[in-house]
Fold:
Amino acid sequence: MPARSSRRSLTATALGALLCGALLHAPQAAPAAAATAVAAGPAVTVPPAGGHGFPFLAAAEDLGSYGYTESEYFFSGTATSYAKSGLWTSDGRWNVRASGTAAYKSRLLVRRPADPAKFNGTVVVEWLNVSGQIDLSPDYWFERDELLRQGYAWVGVSAQAVGVNGGLGEIKGLKGWDPARYGSLVHPGDAFAYDILSQAGQALRAPNGPDPLGGLPVRTLLADDESQSAGFMTTYVNAVQPVSQVYDGFMVHSNSTVAAPITGVLADTLLMPNPSRIRTDLTVPTFVVLTETDVPGAAVARQPDTASVVHWELAGTAHGDQWPYDLGQPTVEKSAGPAAPSADCAAGSAPFDDGPGHWAMNTALRHLAGWARGGPRPPSGQPLSTVLRDPATGLATGGVRLPDVTVPTRTLTGARDTTDSGVFCGLYGARDPWNGDTDAWDRHDDGDPSDPSFPPTAEPVLSRLYPTHADYAGKVRTAAQRSVDAGYLLPEDATAIVAAAQDSGIGG
Structure:
């Protein structure tokens, strides 16, 4: 099969490196005397109303219509920083020693079922992403349908200094956004972010003060993340979980080849093992999920699946795509207004990838929750190639393949041309409807998702692929069932996919 590549793969790799290190330059607290890794449970308090009257990143959607409530809590105490102990190698079996302590005060944003009977016993704790210089919750948006329909509690943690203190963005962190609400927060630097995440889990399991979960009994505590925060989570899994033993399982979504440094100092990324793989000797599971955008910058860190580590690489997906953008942007704009981070893609360029990333993340979450409770390990996935693409469709080969790519109607790719675009544009991938090459970007060059290189190849003709609507709908139904049977798609989502195919005008 001909290889079809372009400078877009280089852009994707550069973006991965940028997001892993972009936020690690936050000011660090001076090291304190060596301390033990065990700290007293953090104190939990209720924040003041503040000037806005709602938390930063408060949901724009009506959570009450799903039977959910949203609230915010502060948690504070003394955090421990860590340093390497012994030699760190690519196998992830990293030992640490406590290197310092510092006072901290951060926040938990909590969404939970209003009816305790609807709680399924699992709390998903997301390390909020700060690539945009503010707190963001990408995995909540990817997994939102599964979270709300299945009765999970979700908790976003402001683990990093930029989210609290501010960085290069217009909004100077939580403290700058609403001094009346957040002025008392204290973040001593990202060296302490790992223990802040541990203490967030402690505050949920055994609150010292008001209970952020309103008395809901925690059965399973999962740590979640995406992108820049996944680099930190890789280091947490390898170095801190063996010390803290707070979490019952980990979702590592869109990490890269090299994990974040334990010191939280950008320059120390050069001292991290390359590649940084997930350790395989933990008693709790880790589920690594990569999109097409991530694979070029993470493939070197591939490792065989084991009893405690599983990897999926998702065909037709992007690091961020239309689904989390549409769900999340109203929430981001509710808090950040015009200062909200922008994809800033060039006018007239292809639209965002709108592929199956969210379907796969719903499935991965359900698998991880069951696995962490002693259930079966999720199925393995095949490696994805972003270089060897189907010359007829422009779709990547290999990987976990859901109906969007097995019964395709458009090109979906995790890479895109970022000429004249902002740095975040490349994260959203691209889609190209098959409409006879009539779109402005259908120029058979790097900006054409379905045909980014010469010689020119015409887009597939849908009426030839699917001579009748019944043929198309039937193929989608069959593909969806195969994905369910293989363990890559949830039955509820298969039903939605089939219904959308039946309601479409595709075929004939």
Summary: The two ends are 29 Å apart (CA to CA).
